[in-house]
Amino acid sequence: MASVAFTSSCPLGYSRIKSLAFSSRSCPNPVFSHPFLPKSTSHNSSFIKPLSLTPIITNNGIQKRHSKLTAKAAASTPAAVTPPSQQPWQGAALKPLIASIATGVILWFLPVPSGVSRNAWQLLSIFLATIVGIITQPLPLGAVALLGLGASVLTKTLTFSAAFSAFGDPIPWLIALAFFFARGFIKTGLGNRIAYQFVSLFGSSSLGLGYSLVFSEALLAPAIPSVSARAGGIFLPLVKSLCAACGSNVGDGTENRLGSWLMLTCFQTSVISSSMFLTAMAANPLSANLAFNTIKQQIGWMDWAKAAFVPGLVSLLVVPLILYVIYPPTVKTSPDAPKLAREKLEKMGPMSKNEIIMAGTLFLTVGLWIFGGVLNVDAVTAAILGLSVLLVTGVVTWKECLAESVAWDTLTWFAALIAMAGYLNKYGLISWFSQTVVKAKLF
Predict the structure, then answer these.
(1) What are the subcellular locations of this protein (predicted)?
(2) What is the pLDDT confidence band of residue 387, given thresholds at 50, 70 and 90?
């Protein structure tokens, strides 16, 4: 009777419960805390009651308990630690750095020529090491220049005030301010509008399209002192879209239709426009500063423009024509270029308020550069006035000026080179070198 009562009250069957009961003795579990056979107060078998399990055990309950135990075991197992990936070297490029340092060290320990002071020779070695670093670029240009200034101060070749004296020179600041102007041109889209306007008027033929791009780039050159900013930021996307509109693409055999000649023309003439104005390229103010330090000849913005405008204009007219003859495009007409330019202008809509302010500021600044001698306003003061207008009106924000890393980088290496070159002249090395060259030519 007892066995019948037991098996009838538990759907799992007797053998299953028996095995669980035995295992519960060796491994206590709250589920099996009640005994299977409760003891009676009498030894008479008639007092044995039908047995039941509390709680009732089912297959689902056992599976859930097993899954919980498995989850706890997995959670207690420590996760495999992935070793961190090795970070790439973010310091200086070692080979260019070694080349730069070796140049300075070798020159430093060479015998000093007669007529040259030891201090001048040491500064020359640091200066040439800095130049090699600027060419090979183990670090950004500003960082290389800062290392050169640090070396000159560390070796007592220059005092701190002498090494950093050129940061008060107006020429580096003129270039930095012109970079901020370039940011306004790109941000407002005024540069693109001017280029599209030229193309829509003169771009119906391949030669006219080339001239429209050349002269629009030259028009922007006084206010954008970087070939990279002008050619890369404004004109390269424009030229690529014009070539695609005329069916001339890179890599599909249609390059010679128009694209090759147009790219070569823009490349060659951007160098010409960069030499026409003092603020068209960063190297121009450096040349003006070296001329002043060497022969005491002041070259202002208008002086440079008057000297370079005529040869520059002739070159801008002749070079595209020469390239058109020796490297001609197979497509002589480009009716799609003016159409594309007009579509772009329609998409841009009328001139925005910021574009109008940018254009007015440009005329104001360039006008002061041209007539600054009469009005007694130097070029840097005119640039500061123009930038002040852009900042006050919100066309350019100060955060955008701070983010213009090329401007601050150029300011740093420009000032460093001007300081070193100025003190090389003060130490008499420039005059000694020029006299040596003259004597060598005479003999």
Answers:
(1) Plastid, Chloroplast inner membrane
(2) very high
